[in-house]
Amino acid sequence: MVTTDSLVRFHPVQVRPSDDDPDEVVVGRPEIGQFVELPAVGARAIELLDAGATIGTAERQLAAEHDIEVDLVDLVEALREAGLVDQIDGQPLAGPHRQVRPHLPGLRARHVSWLFGPVAKLVYLALVAATLVTVVRRPELLPTFRDFFWTDYVGLAVLVNTGLFSLSATMHELSHLVAARSLGAPARIRFATRLHHLVLETDVTAIWSVPRRYRYRVYLSGLFWDLAVVCVALLVLGHTTPHPVVAALLAALVLVLVMSMALQLHVYMRTDFYFVLLDVLRCRNLFHDGLAYARHLLRRFGHSVLPARIAAAGDDPSAVLPSHERRAVRVYAAAVVIGSMVALTSFAGFGLPILLHGAFQAGSAVVAGATGGSLLAAVDGALVLVVEGTLQTIFLLTLYRRYGRRRRPTTAPTSVTPAGPVPAG
Q1: How many Å apart are CA 245 and CA 242, to the nearest integer?
Q2: Which long-range contacts (CB under 8 A, 24 or more apart) does 225-230 make?
């Protein structure tokens, strides 16, 4: 139990000024991805406690220095829940947040910071400019849906295009990771889901340790990589004469990347542009706050229609937010509801039937090939089943791992504002 006589030791923490409030600071542990915002006096309290002062002594010291009364018992409890406290009265604490080993831990800022320097930016701009000139002169290089079917064997096209997409998605996420490492922040790549999409994402929550203006580098690095690959492919197609198969594969790669980049504009999911929007609007957790507000409105509407069956909605969860954040959350809540409904309806009406019809056609080809039909058609159908079956299996496993074993979340006291997770993808 924490008392005013308790001695508290903290894990090594990083402290920086808040991006929005000069009277607050951000304190956290990048290695576990936990950050909180505190009044500036909170950072001084951590300094005093870590130097050996009891909680009571630190309270009196702060009162003398700042002429305020601070309840450090509540603060310590909140910081313990956030995983920042190492010991209380000499007893080590089992942290609520386990440390996850980052990917490529040996990669240091000095190894990759040049990729984001002025010379690299000039080269990138020259690449984009050259591509724009090429496309204006040869607009037939722009991708069309036909580029997906670069062979008469649909299964082979699906297999190879899936491989191209997987490779490009991996490089996209590695770009996020490299950008984070250029700022000294650890990162980790993992599978995740966005509605009905299986995606790769990079957990870069540790970039809360750097000011906002540097975080945009991490959010946009994946898209910049995708655009660079598109530019190189179009320049090769526009200024050389590659083998027809190579040209077809480059065109398919351009199509796959353009489709992937367009998906990042769907900010009602937690895409790369969502995190850009998050920082532009100066919000802490736009997605979860928007979802909570949408649920509040849904429950309020349900109670007005069926008061006997649906309980009252309770307090508006957005009411406790700062005014600028509250306005953004309420608008974003509408975007989440409308965007999700349109996306899921489109998938139910078009995507799922196409998937099921394709699987049925592929299965029929396999059965026909096994009973004396075309062997090539059977192999082609088998490729479709293997690729789609593998992707859907990974999707279901990822969905179960994320939601099937969910633990009840804890709520931090109002004296500490937790920063939301940042999984760029």
Answers
A1: 8
A2: 225/171, 225/172, 225/175, 226/168, 226/172, 226/257, 226/260, 226/261, 227/128, 227/261, 228/124, 228/127, 229/168, 229/171, 229/253, 229/257, 230/131, 230/254, 230/257, 230/258, 230/261
**Alpha-carbon gap, residue 396 to 191, rounded angstroms:** 11
Cα atoms in the 13 Å half-sphere on the side-chain side of 275:
31
Whole-structure pTM value: 0.86
Tokens 């077809």 sit at which residue? 248
DSSP string spanning 262-307? HHTT-TTSS-HHHHHHHHHTT-S-HHHHHHHHHHHHHHHHHHHH-T
Name the residue among 263, 270, 256 with its Cα closest to residue 168. Answer: 256
pLDDT in tens, 278-301: 999 999 899 999 999 999 999 999
